[in-house]
Amino acid sequence: MADHGRRAGLNPAAPASGTRLCRLDEIEQARGFRFREGDRVFHGMVLRKGDAVWGFVDSCPHTGQPLSLFGDRYFTRDGKLLLCAGHGALFRPDDGECVAGPCQGRGLTPWLVVVRDGEVTVA
Q1: Which residues of 100-116 are buried (b: 16+ CB within 10 A; e: fewer)?
Q2: 72-81: long-range contacts (C-beta < 8 A, 24 or more apart)?
Q3: For the chain, what are the domain ranges?
Q4: pLDDT digits (tens, 9 = 90+) for 25-76
Q5: Which CATH architecture has domain 4-122?
Q6: Which of 13, 20, 24, 66 makes an SS bond possible with 43, Cβ 3.0 to 4.6 Å?
């Protein structure tokens, strides 16, 4: 099976399909992941609601920087939207669409992840 990240034209540091990320119970609401290949770094985030997980490339469409500057703090205080800590853009967590800020109308790039036997892996 071809690597989704490379097939989609993502950063070459994107992890290959089947790469284990963590156990499902290690994600409370969101968790960031970093992978390095040479001088390239891939930033990804996985969001969780119950037993469902989905991911996005952790890169603001406005600046290209990761959304969270401190650990796994991706959500607004009320837990309803994803927040770019760099400039305050807001994104819907279900589809990554930017709903406020300078990147309004654009969205986060999906990163396909799955849960198998309680383990979160790259699809």
Answers
A1: ebebeebbbbebebebe
A2: 72/28, 72/29, 72/30, 72/31, 72/32, 72/45, 74/29, 74/30, 74/32, 74/45, 74/47, 75/29, 75/30, 79/29
A3: 4-122
A4: 999 999 999 999 999 999 999 999 999 999 999 999 998 999 998 889 999 9
A5: 3-layer Sandwich (2.102)
A6: 66
